[in-house]
Amino acid sequence: MTGKASGFVAHLLSHLQGLGIPTDSVHLYHCLIHHEALCARILKFDNVMKFVFTSVNFIRARGLNHGQFRSFLEDIEAEYRDIPYHTDVRWLSRGKVLKRFVELRKEICEFLTDKGKDTALFSDKQWLADLAFLTDITDHLNKFNQCLQGKDHFIFDMYQELQSFTLKLRLFSSNLQSGNLCHFPTCSDFQKEYQCDFSKYHCNCETLLKEFSERFDAFKEHKDLFNFIRDPFTCDVESVPDRCQLEVIDLQCSPELKSSFQQNNILTLSSST
Q1: 105 by DSSP, 3-state: which?
Q2: Rounded to an integer, what distance in angstroms lies between the CA atom of residue 8 and that of residue 178?
Q3: Does residue 127 fall inside a structural domain?
Q4: Does residue 95 share a domain with residue 18?
Q5: Which among 154, 121, 151 has a CA at the least distance from the CA of 222?
Q6: Distance between CA atoms of 216 and 221, rounded to whole angstroms?
Q7: pTM of the model
Q8: Which of 23, 51, 58, 111 makes a 20 to 30 Å CA pair with 251?
Q9: Number of compact structural domains in the chain
Q10: Radius of gyration of the chain, Cα coordinates, nearest whole angstrom
Q11: Residue 84 lies in a domain
Q12: 26/138 same-domain check
């Protein structure tokens, strides 16, 4: 898409130049979904990830262990009959693995103990707290990532999702600091079961918020343009490009066009739901 010589952007700029259209007003953005994935990696928690992936790989990478583990889950009539395999190139993989690991943590601990593996971390409250927080925040990040995917997503739609998630991060930080775990179900369960303290994790939300702010600065610079494209009838005329201002005034003063625009938006929302 963005290759300097043969990518779509290079061909687009070359085509515009051939038509005599100036290219200095063309805004180029890096993929939002990739940016989101890079932001998510700021939450390393290597102490959690290393043990979780080592345990999962021990079970899944060996056919004998995998078969025995599935039979074990079936024998004890566990809610789930397997644990997914982690693939680092799949951005949503880590969240799914963490969630299933938490749900099967007692069964995994028992299976690993029978295999002679060190399972001391399963009784370490600090490690369990890290596991719970990482599971919940990764789940929120996965949901945000999924909101950015799919057909018919324009950049202003994706920017709106970004704004929404940024506000959620601020709320998460405030909630964790005050001990409110309503948006962190795994943390809430672990607090009741293991008496873990999660107040310190508000700092991780602040770190994540800072990373999002720095990586998405280019998009914030053009928020007025996004608002104009989304709804030219309510935008501030002075915030739109000079060459469009007179037309926007004419547009905003037309009740027929405004009514038609609102009706089309209602139909679009109805079809999407």
Answers
A1: helix
A2: 48
A3: yes
A4: no
A5: 154
A6: 9
A7: 0.78
A8: 23
A9: 2
A10: 24
A11: yes
A12: no
